[in-house]
TrEMBL record:
Keywords: Oxidoreductase. It comes from the Bacteria. This is Putative oxidoreductase. PANTHER family: OXIDOREDUCTASE EPHD-RELATED, RETINOL DEHYDROGENASE-RELATED. InterPro entries: NAD(P)-bd_dom_sf, Sc_DH/Rdtase_CS, SDR_fam. It comes from Starkeya nomas. One of its GO terms (molecular function) is oxidoreductase activity.
């Protein structure tokens, strides 16, 4: 019997956390995978995902660099199959006061969360538009709704992605390509350790399950929804952010993200 290729999903930031869970769901739903991250653990993730019956191609690439995105895209072209799902999830955070941050550190946040993400979306999105088929999931954040005191650059990048996703969705509304924005809150991943925020209140508080967050995002994408805020507490927080003054939101964020705020 001839092999019938499965549909193909591309997931970035897939070595751990929400990205890995998105890839896991896709594998369980019958998709083959190209998964990418900027660390060797992407190989370990691939081994786990192959156990679910998916063909998995791991790509270790720095998606903060245009060359890294090109490397991932060239892998897709080499495989020679259309991308049915693009889950642009790669992202990093950065805590502490902005004026104390190294330029290289905050630039990497911007380059990873914004530049690399939208470059990849443009490259794969053009192919989807030509085929008039495809689904794109962008991992934004509820952080994009509030000024991020002691997390200023990160929140700014997520505000960009939240806005960008709705704009792109509108541009593609007469095509067969859908765009969905997943907006999680604080999630139980390595994010806060990597961002240097373990001594903050938000770093120490109870967090959402990445598997549940990923399930909410995947379902919204498959349903063609514009956005999804995962978790009822996050929905309330987002609703409040739409009516509270920006200065009050910034002060509220300070209480959560200021270094030392996790000390009791």
């Amino acid at each position: 019997m001839a092999y019938v290729a499965k549909p193909l999903a591309v997931v970035t930031g897939a070595s751990t956390g929400i990205g890995f869970e998105l890839a896991r769901i896709a594998a369980e739903k019958g998709y083959d995978l190209i998964i990418a991250a900027d660390e060797p653990r992407i190989e370990e993730a691939a081994l786990k995902l192959r156990g679910l019956g998916a063909a998995v191609v791991p790509v270790e690439a720095d998606l903060a660099q245009l060359e890294g995105v090109d490397e991932l895209y060239e892998t897709i072209l080499t495989i020679g199959r259309p991308v049915d799902l693009l889950m642009a999830n790669a992202g990093i955070g950065l805590g502490h006061a902005f004026l104390e941050q190294d330029v290289d550190a905050w630039q990497r946040v911007v380059d990873t969360n914004i530049t690399g993400t939208i470059y990849l979306i443009q490259r794969i999105g053009k192919d989807m538009q030509e085929r008039n088929a495809g689904r794109i999931l962008i991992t934004g954040s509820i952080a994009g709704f509030m000024p991020g005191s002691f997390q200023a650059v990160y929140n700014g990048t997520k505000a960009f992605l939240n806005s960008f996703s709705f704009a792109l969705r509108n541009e593609l509304q007469d095509t067969g390509v859908t765009v969905t924005c997943l907006m999680p809150g604080a999630t139980d991943t390595e994010f806060f350790a990597r961002a240097g925020m373990l001594d903050t209140k938000v770093g120490q508080d109870e967090k959402d399950d990445p598997a549940e967050v990923a399930r909410n995002g995947f379902e919204a994408m498959m349903n063609g929804e514009g956005d999804v805020v995962s978790g009822w507490k996050n929905k309330l927080q987002t609703a409040a952010a739409n009516v509270m003054p920006a200065g009050m939101l910034a002060e509220q964020h300070r209480k959560m993200a200021e270094p030392g705020s996790g000390k009791h």
